[in-house]
Amino acid sequence: MRRRDFITATTGTTAAVVAPVLSSRPTAVGTSDVIRLRSGLDALTALDNSRGGHVGLEQAALAGAKDALDKQKLAASQRIRRRLFSVAADYTATAAWSAVDTRQLDRAQSLLDRALYLAGMAMDSVAELRIWNAYAMLARQRGEHAQAIDSGYAAQATAVTRRDPLYASLAHARTAIGHSNLGDRKSALRSLGYAEEFLGKASTAEQRPSWVAFYGPAELTAITAVVRDRIGDPAEAEAASHQALSAIPVQFRRNRALATAQLALAQLHQRDIDQACATAETVFGLMSGNPIPGRMRSRLGDFYRDLITLAPDATVAQEWGDRYRSEWSRL
Q1: Tens of pLDDT along the chain (331 residues)?
Q2: Helix (H) or strand (E) run with residue 325 in it
Q3: Looking at the whole model, is its pTM more than 0.85?
Q4: Domain ranges of the chain
Q5: What torsion do the CA atoms of 210, 22, 110, 230 make, to the nearest 10 degrees?
Q6: What is the full DSSP assignment across 9-76?
Q7: Phi/psi zone of residue 26: left (φ > 0), alpha (ψ -120 to 50 degrees), beta?
């Protein structure tokens, strides 16, 4: 793939970040080519952590997947071919995740299906777990909570969970959210318990791909806040949200904004209307300079819906609604 073609396929910062690592060479493809392609994945992951999903990110990831598959035809060995299928699976999963984050649900489904096929060709259980994790999040957005749980179980069944407890923890945490959305308190708390247990066994020295760097004690605490709020424990959810925000690294700006929106929901569900509105308003500041991804817009939409249900006549609720509509018309 020619460098100028890749740049044309992307926009702004996204293209500038990843274009240099996706240039082609006419010679036999080997390990150094795989490494260069994977460095492009790292750059896209960093961009997602800061800005969230967007069209440029998705296009750049798809261009990376195409480059990996084109190089696969010139691979020097079967081992290199499998590694390139793995890279293509990860790039496609990155594009799919961007579509999930922007709530382009049908496109996300198609891309996840493609990514799962490529992961199977690569015999890459880490990529498979990543894709099932995203399937669970997509099912949640569609309100298909039983399917979200099934996707969590599929993630738990991947081979990598038997080798690395961090991945097992992530799979159980995602399953816990599915149970909470069905109102199954016992199963949700049991899955959270497994997630905590496995995370306690995970090594921090293990080398893992950059996409999973978001997951650790801080993210599990943020997930705990979501689960607790949805099973009717808003005070526990608020405490977990504060704990998560004290620990989520600054570079994970989108995740910090999501945790802040969840904190606002927990405060609202305790009828602390003024504080909840003040907390929710800070989300706009956290994401200042970039459009708010669809998944976060949905979380704020949940807040506004509950706000007008619980306090339709409160002045602060009306003021927050005006800010909400103003932000929406700007984005």
Answers
A1: 443 343 344 444 444 444 444 444 456 788 888 888 888 898 898 888 777 778 888 999 999 999 999 988 888 788 999 999 999 999 999 999 999 988 899 999 999 999 999 999 999 999 999 999 999 999 999 999 999 999 999 999 999 999 999 999 999 999 999 999 999 999 999 999 999 999 999 998 889 999 999 999 999 999 999 999 999 999 999 999 999 999 998 888 888 999 999 999 999 999 999 999 999 999 988 888 777 878 888 889 899 999 999 998 888 888 888 877 777 655 4
A2: helix 315-330
A3: yes
A4: 1-123, 250-331
A5: 20
A6: TS-HHHHHHHGGGG---SSPB-HHHHHHHHHHHHHHHHHHHHH---HHHHHHHHHHHHHHHHHHTTBS
A7: alpha
Alpha-carbon dihedral sign for residues 167, 168, 169, 174: positive
Tokens of 299: 């979380």
Assigned token pair, 49: 């952590």
